[in-house]
Known about the structure:
mainly alpha; three-stranded mixed sheet; 11% strand; elongated
Amino acid sequence: MADQSIRNGASQVQDSLDRIALYRWWRSHIVGSIDHPVVVERIVAESGWSPRYLFMTMMSAGIAVLGLLLSSPAVVIGAMLISPLMSPILGFGFSLALFDFAEMRRALIALAAGSACAVAFTALIVLLSPLQAPTEEIIARTRPNLFDLAVALFAALAGTFAIIRGRGDTVVGVAIATALMPPLAVVGYGMATSNLAVLGGAFALFITNFVTIALSATVMARFYGFGHALSSKQSWTQTIVLILVFVGMAIPLGFSLKQIATEAVTVTQVRAFLTDRFGSDARVTQLDVNFDGSPVAIRSVVITPRAKMQRTLTLQGALQQRLGQPVRLQLDQVVLEPGAGAIDAQREELRQAGDTATIENARIAALARMLGLAAGISSDAVTIDRDHRRASAVAAPLPGASVATYRALEERAHQDIDDWEIAITPPQGPLPLVSFASDGDTLDAGARDAVLTSAWAAKRWNIRSLGVPGLPGEAPEKPTLSQRRAATIATLLRDQGLTPVPAQAAGQSFRLIRSEGAEQ
């Protein structure tokens, strides 16, 4: 027992000696090799506000926003190189390591002033610019994720190392990697165009870069002995705060990365699905998936032999089953005639799929003509909603046409254009007759169709309730035949999203009644 205690004591002594030796090595080889006053003086001299600083910040912001609007990576990189925002952020990080609150306040004022000027200047340029459409360079800076945090972390560590060790050439690469100015330019773009989604995403990216650079500078400054005279309590406080901040940023950025990865997998699944359904002779030349709305909107162009053409609605149902979520598929099938070779296919692709807007406009014009013909009106009177892919028309009275006639016309139009929602509003008229067998309360096929047609007409007329003859206000203990029939109809109406209300009883044949005050 005594021997064991002696061995434990000896081990503890050895550990203490090892720590002392390691500390001495760190003090002599790491801390001792740095001229701390010179480094601090250089950082303090560049981290404050000055007219030159604001001028260079605004010029960098102007170059950045023009590069973003032109979608020119080279111009954007030029803006990064002359941006002075790195200096106040490094000053803030070193002030955290030194617990120098005066320098911390000075750096934050410089950063806030520069950021505000950059955002205001870029917003003004966007307002005056004829080019305001979001480009790929803009969109790329609206969805920060965990990878952006990792890039900022590694680049900031390298940049702080270069500042401390006097290797200024490395800072050029760090300025490009951390990309402080482009997110601010995108914030200005979002403000000028009132696009809150773009503004919020770009601001989140800027905050991610700013916090990561500042805290990484703090870590490196402490490692190289800046603020080593602080108490152990202060050192532990810094360590805990740094860990909590990095974890706090990593959680939402991790979720964002997961969402981006999920969307990438979905796009791959959609492409594989279309390739599999059309076969090796076809080619998916364009695929755009919009995840912003519900359902997910998928737009694709497929060059396919005529024999492999497929119905869009059938593909949409199968794709929904494959992905496990609702989708809206817009598919343009470019027909490749038998015997056509690769060159012919490319020509056909350029002719038909190259001008997507022209194809879509021609398709919508044909849809308007067809729907106007079915409804007995001109094509100009057809309402087209491109965003939701919905076409509607208020039908003119046609001689001898009943409500069922207009419903059949709508169904026929939907079969011809299966990837659009078609709505034909019939003229006001009597609802179809609902007939029962002499002694039954079950709807046969004809009676069921009459109820469904009545429900369809009520929805088109914006009526939310229908009167059902014989429907009691309260469920009776022993319902009569008329009440059982009414209950059967009421159940079917509820399934269609309508409210059945009691109406005067009728015989075995009757019409549903439009409820007074039901129009909205």
